[in-house]
Every structure is written in C-alpha cells, then in structure tokens.
Amino acid sequence: MVKGNWQKEISEAITSVDELLNILDLQTSIAGDQLMFAPEFKLLVPRAYVSRMQKGNPQDPLLLQVLPRVLEACNVEGFSVDPLAERAVSPVPGLLHKYYGRVLITMAASCALNCRFCFRRHFPYAQNIIDENTCMGILAYIANDKTITEVILSGGEPLLISDAKFNTFINALEKIEHVKILRIHSRMPIVVSARITEELLCSLRKSRLQIVVVVHCNHANELVSAVTESIDKLRAAKVSVLNQSVLLRGINDNADALIALSYKLFNSGILPYYLHMLDKVQGAAHFAVSDTLARRLLAEVQSKLPGYLVPQLVREVPRATSKTRL
User: Residue 230: left (phi > 0), alpha (psi -120 to 50), or beta?
Assistant: First the structure.
C-alpha cells in the first residue's frame, strides 16, 4: 500500500530521546539523569509537532508533554495503572460502557504522539484489538441496547485506522437506527493535520449521523496554520469541533496560558469544552495540579473570558455516572 502524507509523517516520527534533544539544541541543557532514554511507554513525536517547539528551551510546554523523564518511574500513592477502573466497564472487547446513552470504542492501540500523561498508557490493548470478529460483537452490543444514542471513538488514536476501514465502520454504525451521534476524540487534527483527507471528509459529510470531533490541545503553541486549515475542512463538512485539555503542571497551570489557549482555539474554529484534572495514572504524578490551584485558575479565567470560552473544569471519577465538575 502506498503511504499518504499523514502516514509518512507518522512513520518518520522521532522515537529517540537523543535525536529530539539534538534537534532542539538541548544536549547540554537537560541532565541525562533526568531523562528516561528507553522508556517502556516509548517516545513518539512527529517532526511537524517538534517544529513548534522553541529551540534551546528545556521548559518548552510542548516538549514537556512528550519528553520521557525518570520521574515516570516513581510510584506515587493514589496513582495506578487503571485510574478510571475501565476494565470493569468493558462488556465486550474493545468497548467501554461507562455512561448512560453512550459507549466508547478503543479503535486503535497506538497514537501519532505519545503524551507522557496519557491515562491509557497501561491499557490492555492486546485484549481489545478491533478486528472483524470484535467489530461484529461491538456492533451487536450497540444494536441490542436501544438506550445507546451516541458512539465515541477513542483509543489510542481512532484516526490511525485507514479511510477505508473508517468508512466501512461508519456505514455499519449508520444501520443502527437508535444511534444518532458519532463523536471522535482525536489528536490528529492538532498533531498530524494531513490526516484530514478528502476521503475522510466525504465519509463525515455524507453520514446521517451528527458528527462531533473533540480535539486534544493543551497549549496555544500547538495551534499553527496547518491546524486551522484542518479544522476549517471539518467545519465545512458540517462537523462540530470542540476541545478538551488536561490541566498540567509546568505546561498550562497559569491563567495567562489558559486564556491564550481559549482565544486561540476560538480563532481556529474550535470551542473550548473540557479542562480535565489529571487522571491519576502511574507515571504521570509529576503533572498533577492541586484542586485548590485548579479552582483558583478557573475563577481567574472566568473573570476574564466570556462564558462560551470558559471550559468546564472536570475530573473523571471511577463508576460515577458522569464527569464530576470542580
């Protein structure tokens, strides 16, 4: 199979800590004993994303999202490999049924960019592979529960599957009459904007389902012109585009950064939706922000932004029936 531009970008992504530091002129700025050079959850970052990082800045907010550090090896009380108890809400492989009226499908086992704070970094994807048999089981489960009106595609990265596979799946989903909404949680429009192909847009445009794409952007520096172009294409296909961020220590844990993010999202055609508290996954405790600081930041953001640009500050609590607002 001939690779498209987006597939080529992913195949050429950086997987070496040394190479990343060399590109950013950081060989001598970060001590080697602070870094994890062979992490189990590997470094993976496309070069286009790296080009948005500031050379010579070890505190660059995009770099800190992807750079493996020895802090990940620290076992911190209250942090676990399954922080949301997702294994208990998987009635069939590849599907999670946490909330009334909607289900989530883990369409892919990998991403285009490995975020160090990923709450599914320990998820048992090998037990949840989406193949033909698994897909049939998922569709049967959805068809047999008429309370399900919304299907959420997540992962990993759901848009890592090919356009052909995506089109086949969406066609099958459309045959289930009680399903009305398809929501796609994806970093791809932000990280590898070329993934928003005409074939994908055609599948979205012609669907009878109401399509929602929730992008994951944590800092205004991620929003470059290529991102805006991909969002424009989605909106032209009558797709609603929202954003969810994670509140991260050292990256966006100040009001100025959050305000700049909301404005730049809106300028790019994206509506702020959720600002998540960190899920307590083992290996990510160094990103955690306290509830006290989070509430103070939200109050300051609310005092300076119109309501439609203020994301909901939430956390996910295992076995709760919805997100929990702070």
Answer: alpha
Final residue of a structural domain among 73, 99, 132: 73
> Same structural domain for residues 232 and 300?
yes
Q: Is residue 78 in a domain? A: no
Q: Give residue-wise pLDDT tens across range 203-222.
A: 999 999 999 999 999 999 99
Residue 280 belongs to domain with CATH number: 3.20.20.70
Q: What is the 3-state secondary structure (H, E, C) of 81-137?
A: CCCCCHHHHCCECCEEEEECCEEEEECCCCCCCCCCCCCCCCCCHHHCCCCHHHHHH
Query: Does 189 share its domain with 130?
Result: yes
State the Cα–Cα distance between residues 128 and 157, nearest whole angstrom: 14
Query: Quick count: other Cβ atoms within 10 Å of Cβ 204?
Result: 21
Q: The domain containing residue 251 runs over which residues?
A: 86-325
Token reading at 15: 């997987």
pLDDT digits (tens, 9 = 90+) for 134-147: 999 999 999 999 99
Q: Using CB atoms within 10 Å of the CB of residue 235, give its burial: 0 to 12 exposed, 13 to 18 middle, 19+ buried.
A: middle
Give a yes or no: residue 79 inside a domain. no
On the 0-12 / 13-18 / 19+ scale of CB atoms within 10 A, 28 is exposed
